[in-house]
Amino acid sequence: MTKGMYESIEIAAAADEVYAVAADVDAYPEWAKGVKSVEVLERADDGTPMRASFVIDGFVKEIGYTLTYTHEAPTRLAWEAEPGTDVKQLTGSYDFVEKDGRTTVTYALRVEPNFPVPGFAMRQGEKQIVGAALRGLKKRVERK
Fold it and tell me: What is the phi/psi pair of residue 80, to 5°?
């Protein structure tokens, strides 16, 4: 298991606005680099996604996994992958801290694939995923 990594970015918007974009997993293929498709499998009564199946363009191959979400709007969105063919373990979260109308978003990610990946490549992969996701989220929120 990798130690995982985290990174933060500041977004010029209120936490509830940023959270709303991050929680709209249906739209990830429109802005999240590498996400090829998302299918929401289960929603809460208010329409909030609770389980979703993803296909991403991995570095070595296309990777599929299903995430289960925990929502603490508008301060935290967390997820955990169900064990599957491509992913042994995957946990992540967005934490949103608002100050003066701006929101600092911290993305944490820990991945253990179900196929061999050298440690250096794994760390680089996590770093690229987290960085691209934060930049994509910032661009998506701030363009509105």
Answer: -145, 135
